[in-house]
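thought: fold this chain, then report.
action: predict
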Amino acid sequence: MSRLFGSVRARATLGATLVVAVALVAAGAAVLLSLRSNLLGEAGTQAERSAREVAAELAVGTAYGELSLDVDDRPVQVVDGHGRLVAASEDLERISGTGVAAVKPQQAAPRDGEDDDADDDDDASGESLEPGEIGERATTGDGSATVDGDTQDYRFAAVPVETRDRGRLTVWAGAPLSAEHGAVDTALTVMLIGFPVLLAVVAWVTWLVTRRALRPVEGIRREMAAITASEDLARRVPVPGTHDEVARLASTTNETLAALEASVERQRRFVADASHELRSPIASLRTQLEVAAAHPELLDLDGAVEDTVRLQRLAADLLLLARLDAGERPADARFDLAALAREETAGRSGVSVRAGGEVTVAGSRGQLGRVLANLLDNAQRHARSAVEVSVRRDGEAAVVAVADDGEGVPAADRERIFERFVRLDAARSRDDGGAGLGLAIARDVALRHGGTLTVHDAPAGGALFELRLPGAW
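observation:
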């Protein structure tokens, strides 16, 4: 059971059915109440009409025995000011709801001038009537009556009338509620039968619609399960042609798979390149140590130290790249970029620095120092005679430009040089100190600091590397 209602399809079906059920119950209750109210109002109108017809006869002085009390077999009572029944339907056997339970007329008491006048002035309705006048307001109520052996529920209406010779009289007339009961019962029966059928139809349609709507999702799930099992990131999930949320989900999933495939491919290439780059200095160092162990007099100490330093630098570069790939957030320290440029250029021959004033940035001083060092190393390897470093403000950005007077970078390779383990020519060989990681590290650090690193043509004809970072002033 828990597994069944754990599916989106089942929950959607159940939710839609419950919403429709609540709506149907509310609508059904409103319909029944409205129907009952209308039918009760109609019965009350009929009862009042019958009472006014009898009251009109009393107003013109019609004797009790001549009143039209047995029309349509409806219960009618005429009550005097003392609460005595003075006239009633001939076949009336029992009555309730009018306040007078008597069904046989009683003899009226003789009139007593003053007292009767006092009784004639007011009745329960509070109206003051002139002789021969019928009250405008009618009092209604529900009750039951037995007429000629037939017991029914009735809607009663009481209408006061002021007669000329019999004082204040009240006419009670009833209209049967059988039509109201029948209509309400019929409507309720239809609802009790129709609502479950309608709910079953709603549930069935919702089940079919959700199955059709979720069919592409199931296809995406199966394909993702197959990709997970096969570890083949080149596969893609099917994209339905519906242009809806499911299609967008499939497209986003494919974009994620593409990014994951590219990331895994970069990782594999990185591991392969790193293994290749590490193999050379390790093999060279091992060879020198083995030769030294066998022939100490042949030990090339300078070469061993150089290989060790190169190995150390390469390991440091790989570690920094791994930290950058892991998403390590840079520090949030504030420092002067111009002062950092002066520190990195100190002791380097042929390098000049031009900085107008303090240029403050926020980030990792060590990582940005590494960027400048890598750019300077690259510029010095390719410069003919001079390297120039400039630090300036450009709007809200801090800009560091490193220019050399070498051969420059061809336009077709200006993005490729920032890839890892890329060397454009033989001049950038391992023996010349470059493993192809310096510029890749520099750009990754720049991006982590919210900046950019690009290459252009330098005024002297060489390469101009421009580092732009958000200012912190």
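thought: worth noting. The helical segments are 8-59, 113-121, 178-230, 245-294, 301-325, 337-345, 365-382, 438-448.
final: tokens above.
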